[in-house]
Structures are given as C-alpha cells and as structure tokens.
C-alpha cells in the first residue's frame, strides 16, 4: 500500500507540474480596515492584465529579473497604466494587501531547490517613482528610515512569499500534501496569497504613492551559492483623507472571512522575514515579547509569541520603538546578528535580525523548467550593513475570492 501511495503521489505531482507554467505577480491591491477586513474598491497594479483574457501569457503581466548587473528597471512603464483600471485609494497610515496567486510554488516547493518558504517579498514605497528606477536602486538599498540608497523611497515591510495559508486550486488532488492540508483547513477551492504592509503616516493626503513588490526567489545551487531570480510588481496608490479617523487602532476580528481579510501576523509584524536562511533551511527565528502597545486581536493565538520559526514579533516599548533594519548591497545573503539599542526612557530592546539576500526571485512557476543561471551570487555576511533606527510609535496592524 505504501508503495502504491508513493507511485500515485509521484504521478499527481508530475501531472500538476506539467500543467502549470505560470508565474506570480500582484493581481489586486486591497485596503484593510480597522477590523483587518478588506474594504473599498479593488485597485490594480501597473501593467495589469487579466489572466482570464483570450490571449493572456505570463510575460504580459510579469517583470522578471535574472541578472542585476545592468540594473534593470523595477516597474513596468506607468504611462496609461490606469487608463482602464483603477488605482487603490488609501490614506496615510492605512494597511494595504498586495494579492497574488501562488501558482504551485507554495503547494509544490520541491520542484526546484528554493529558499525557505519560497523566498522573501520586500515592499518598498516612494512618492518619486520614475520608470528608470532600477532594481539595485531599490532592493537592499532603500531602508525603512528612508535614508538608504538614493533616499527616494523606503522599505515598508518584509514577508515570506508563502504567507502560511494560501494555495491554488488543484482539483481536489489530495496527493499533494500542502494543498490537501490547507484545503481541508479552509474549505475553499483556492486561497490567494498576500503581502500586507502599512502606508507611512507622514504621507500627504493627495497625489500618488508607488509601492513595489519585490520577490527574491533565488535558485539554490549550494549552501554558498545562489542563482539570481527576482520578480516584481508595482502599483500606484491614490492618496486621500483618512476614512475612519486618523490613526484608528487596528483590532483584528476573528469573524473575518480568511479570503476577504489581511493576515493578522503580517499586520502585527511588518518586518516578518529577515533572512533567506542557508539553502532550503529556515533562518533562526528572532524572539521578542509583544507589548500592550502593539496591534490587538480578539484571537488570543494571534498575540502570542510563536515558536514557529516562520514567524517573529518585535518588542515594543512606550514611546519610541527601536527596530533593526537590514540593508545590503546586491549579491549578499543571510547573516544573523543581535544588537541592543536604547528605547524610550532608557529602556533597552534586543532584536535579532538577518541580512537579506540579493539573490533574485522568479515569478511563481511550478513547471519543471529551470531558469538558465545568468548571475551566480555568493553567500556572504551582511552584518556590516545592519543598523538600528527609531521609528516612533508603531502600529501593527487580496482580492475577494468568493
């Protein structure tokens, strides 16, 4: 029986792998209200193409980077990008979800050797986007305090590509373990992935703000060498006055439908993923104790410090909050370091952080195609790039899929 089950599982994997040759990109942009639920009209990314269209191919929607040496652009051209589709409307301080399909990368991570939880998604934002903005100008250059690189933008959040709950529709093929587990847990045909972040509170209430979704998904060739693959999506957000009062505190509701709400852990911890780890292994998880200042939830499990290495929390203190921010030059990866910085009133915070690899991510494909290596990236320490910053009071906090 065990032999038979293994054969059937192998057939199922090969069947799905042969039938799926899609990549990931942001498909929708959603505003998140104070209960954690999606609200308002759907927004779309720059260069949006409906994947159900008759002549759709991946290349129309994706922006794929296999070599960073020439500093290729991060975003598709913005001219006429919103002639037929809406920008998301949101206010300074609002929480936002960038929604994408996993296309088999989450449910079938063993097709090619990739980092833990399929790599890291970094979200950057700028009021000064130009079509010429290159990947090296942004990735591992812009920092959360807005002072890194050319100073045009800032890092808004870092999360794993696998958000811990999403999966694609695999036609009830329960021989694929991750799909089977999540399908039975959530009972939906499919559940889109998302990357959640908060817009800076000091933005103006008019104009457009560009956010950049940068998925770092290197092909692992050894524990000391990666092959660059990055996929990016960008979206313009139309800034507006706050809809529910400035700085409304987010309290995540347990009544939220999972496919119509943000993810509590991402809203609570904006910088959740701080390193790719070595090979396919997870990085060491930072540990900290949530404080009463952080985002509240009526689900007790969402406020507890998790022992799961896929999650982390940040210690908060009354008044100013000190956060470790990682910056790195292109072509660097993961090294952990703990530093102590002074908090408000002399309080101290210990935070463990890691370097973020500049090995690049490819859009989600579950096919057996392996990208031709164009840029081999050595794994080296980034501890010299670590820096502490003061962020002030921190509030931690898709696509409707019916």
How are the elements arranged and paired?
Layout: H1 2-19, E1 26-32, E2 38-43, H2 58-61, E3 64-65, E4 88-90, E5 95-100, E6 120-126, H3 135-138, E7 153-160, H4 177-186, E8 193-198, E9 208-216, E10 219-222, E11 225-227, E12 230-239, E13 251-252, H5 264-268, E14 296-297, E15 322-326, E16 336-342, E17 348-354, E18 376-378, E19 386-390
Parallel strand pairs: 4-12, 13-14
Antiparallel strand pairs: 1-2, 1-5, 3-12, 5-8, 6-7, 6-9, 9-12, 10-11, 11-18, 15-19, 16-17
Short summary of the structure?
The chain is an alpha+beta fold. Helices cover 10% and strands 25% of the residues.
Q: Provide the gyration radius in Å.
A: 20 Å
State the end-to-end CA separation: 38 Å
Relative strand content: 25-35%
Count of distinct strands: 19
Shape: globular
Helix content: 10-25%
* Unreliable runs: 4-21, 288-374, 379-400
Explain how this protein is built.
- By secondary structure, this protein is of the alpha+beta class.
- Helices cover 10% and strands 25% of the residues.
- It contains 5 helices and 19 strands.
- Strands 3, 4, 6, 7, 9 and 12 form a 6-stranded mixed sheet that branches. Strands 2-1-5-8 form a 4-stranded antiparallel sheet, with no helix packed on it. Strands 10-11-18 form a 3-stranded antiparallel sheet, with no helix packed on it.
- A hairpin with a 2-residue loop joins β10 and β11.
- The longest helix has 18 residues.
- The protein is globular.
